[in-house]
Amino acid sequence: MINNVFERTVERGVKAGFIEIDYDNERVTYFCKQDFNTSYKNPEEKIRAAYLTELVLDYKYPKNRIDFEVKTKPDKDRIDIIVYEDDECKSPYLIIETKKDGISDNEFQEAIEQAFRYANYKRAPYAIVVAGITRTAFDTLGFKADERQKNVISDIPVKYGKAPKYKFKKGDENNELRVVFREDLINTLNKAQSTVWQSGKLAPTTAFDEVSKLLFCKLKDEKDTTKNSYYNFQIGTNETEEEVFDRVSKIYQEAIKDDPLVFKEGINLTPAIVYNVVEHLQQLYLTNIDLDTKGVAFELFMKDFFIGKMGQYFTPRPVVEFCTALLNPQKSDNIIDPSCGSGGFLLYAMDNVRKFVYDNYDEMEAWKHWHNFAVNNLYGIEINDQIARVCKMNMIIHDDGHSNIIGKDALEDFVQLQKFNKDFQEDFFDIVFSNPPFGASVKKKEVKYLDLTFTS
């Protein structure tokens, strides 16, 4: 069973006949300039096999001009993949350094230096570092030897052509964003989080907020980009960190104008950090990844971040599933979770309705029914404003229903809650889903309603 985008890509190479895999003995053979056989156990080898497939089938480089483990002098390191300009393989053209998916930003920078060392020695005009979905390509001859930013190119040329200004283009079969598997999405989200968190330089909630802002930008860009136009959430040829940061910031400012309840502050990250996150995310087609994949990936991402780094409590999935099955919410029900946290109960209610309508209506009608339900029938209250934003982001990822989530105390009088949403009123809701924070300790002086005097 294929579990990630790299395995899916390698299968194309196997079918085309220039890759052969012995799964019993965990060996792989490449049929290129020479027949090259090596172990297939190392995760890095799967990345090399996948990128070789792309080089031959997508970038149209002749396999007889591709070689592996070519020695360099004087250090005698070995180049993972080298593409030549000629059939005699005497004129190096492209140096490829492959690494396993999920390496750190520092490891990625080390791989860049490694690729440059090989490219400079071999006098190859192009180099690329491929670490799973994260990739950076360089024009290695057109700039000074120590340049590492202005010589970035959006992608390697196709068949000895010219490097494009931008790579990812909406509706372009050869340059569309990639729909990936759950494993790929989890790994990419973790890389983005690691880049932003900076090994603890930011508080966990702050780092999560910043990652969410950039995911918000990514989703908006995917939806707003018109057909046959280049996406804005990507790194173009010869673009600096500041240029990429400015373009992403513009997307963000437009997003918060359209939806000011999700985020109120600007992006509080350096251009270098934003640039690195764009490197990780730019290939993904988040909008088109199926909801179950996005849901599980984002849930695991949140749990790792909030349980691992903050000790936050999440209602166990089996409990949420049981409650949803017991109450069986329908598309006409108004549903509220007054202590919604990250939105688990609301999302399962939405998913229950989604599955029902797709089983009972045609596709277009079903889509309208469950989107209307998500926008008009799901409500949440969360006392922690940062966690409320997490819930909103979770809903957006799920496409969506975030507009009726408010960051308030659910025990406040309805009059107070209606200042934020007029629908928070008596006898409006049909189902109440909740796992209240029973362990919380609140003093009377902290909230006025605990000090009320009741008369019979």
Shape: elongated
Report the order of strands and helices: HEEEHEEEHEEEHHHHHHEHHEHEHE
| CATH level 1 name of the largest domain | Alpha Beta
Structure class: alpha/beta
Q: Tell me the distance between the termini.
A: 67 Å
Description:
It contains 13 helices and 13 strands. The protein folds into 3 domains: 5-153, tt1808, chain A, CATH 3.90.1570; 182-288; 313-451, Rossmann fold (3-Layer(aba) Sandwich). A hairpin with a 7-residue loop joins strand 5 and strand 6. The strands form 3 sheets. A 6-stranded mixed β-sheet has the order 4-5-6-7-8-9, with helices on both faces. The chain is of the alpha/beta class and 456 residues long. The model has no long low-confidence stretch (mean pLDDT 89). The longest helix is centred in the middle third of the chain and has 21 residues, at 204-224. The chain has helices spanning 5-16, 43-57, 105-122, 182-197, 204-224, 241-258, 271-281, 291-310, 317-327, 344-360, 363-376, 385-398, 414-417, and strands at residues 19-22, 27-31, 35-39, 66-71, 78-84, 92-99, 126-131, 134-139, 152-153, 335-337, 378-381, 405-406, 431-432.
